[in-house]
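input
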Amino acid sequence: MAKVSISPEGVKYALPDEKAGKEEIKILDEITAEQTQLGRKVVAIQGLGFVGAVMAEVVADSTDSQGKPIYFVHGVQRPSTRSYWKVPVINKGESPIEATDPEVAEIFPRIVKEKKTLRATWSSYAFSLADIIVVDIQLDATKPVFGDAAKGYCDTGAFEKAIADLGRNIKPDALVLVETTVPPGTCQHIVKPILEKEFKARGIDISKNPPRIAHSYERVMPGRNYVSSIRNFWRTYSGIDEESAKIAQEFLTNVLDTKEYPLYRLNNTNASELSKTFENSFRATNIALVYEWTLFAEEVGINLFEVVKSIRVRPTHKNLMNPGFGVGGYCLTKDPVLAHWASLNVFKRKKGLEMAVEAVNINDLMPLHSLRLTKSALGGTVSGKHIHLLGASYLSDVGDTRHSPSEIFWKAAVKEGASLSVHDPLVKVWPEIPEAKVEKDLLGSLKNKDALIFAVGHKEYLGLDPEKVVEAAGKPLAVIDTQNLLTDGEIKKYLNLGCKVKGVGKGHIETLRRER
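output
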């Protein structure tokens, strides 16, 4: 049976064979020759995930002062049973990403069918045709012990293989722009040596043709401003040498709005790599600090959301975080661990980043607090109870489930004997919890549930009528608000309907109960 790649919708796509490989090379040569005649430079995006796919859109959609396309883009997703399906989907002019930002779906047909400035491929041969290669492949941190991030590490094996693939194919003067969030020191200590080794194996004199390498990290924010978070946002960048930095600056200036959002150059790639992990470690630590005060506020009867709101009037404190369900996604859950690992293993320091790592520990364990609130509302146990999660994704109005706090809650609740179900308007399947059927009928999914967890702040969950919720459930139920979605008036209505209500950071609910 032929190997296949299956899309989130369940559509099967056969993986390419050797014959298809020869045909693909011919197609790539013809397209590149045509684009070169049009005066366009060629860019290859390595990896078509949540960052790479939209980066490919932005680059392929960029134009010069006369409105003419500047680049042609080969979007490269290597054959795999997980993600190859994106290649045929993109080449039909469709988005491989479910997003609330309408621009994501609007740009793909424009650049594939109208402008014809993007084509997806699975062949590494595309790298040999590119002037610039943007690296957007996954590099994760492994945390083998839940709640002990200090034991986390970075397995760079797959990343190194991907860089070696570039080294075997790219033109000697092509720029490799690493956009992936990597441990500090990666470009200098991993990318550069690998490219040099592959260049030497090809007979390239690296004294005359040293690999051109740059680093520019993204600040992608999946959601309503998905595309803008790439195109219309500030960028930090650096080069392994002056020539690399110069090429990177020209490229970024062509594809991003650098007039409104100027580029910031750092002196070397170690600095820009550290910048990304430091930036996200700051955010992770901010969240961890708020969690400590969340517990304090709950125990002494204070609404911490109102307290945070009052503090944010001070301009220097506008970035103070709110209480919440937990921390998820691809950045804050791993970036501090990447930096900690690099400190010890790349730079051989004796000391890691203890505060940043402890922040990850606190944030990873945070969903267990919502489980404790649920147990309290259900009389001390969730065993035998039917718990319904509103939201499987890691962020409001986003369909990405990677490292979702809902996953941690689900697994912990099941371990304690609870039965769980989930609704999410943006998630089609939940890869991390394959047994979960993601419900789409919001009210219909509430039938016979004992507890309702407002886990994600999707706009669909705002303003739900408490009476309709209880009617749909068929009985009063425990309601846990982890995202400040319920107003005080709605909380009182739930209480009047006989529901037990708890809220993360909402210590004032007991006062509301007495006032009703």
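quick obs: The chain has two domains: 4-269, 292-515.
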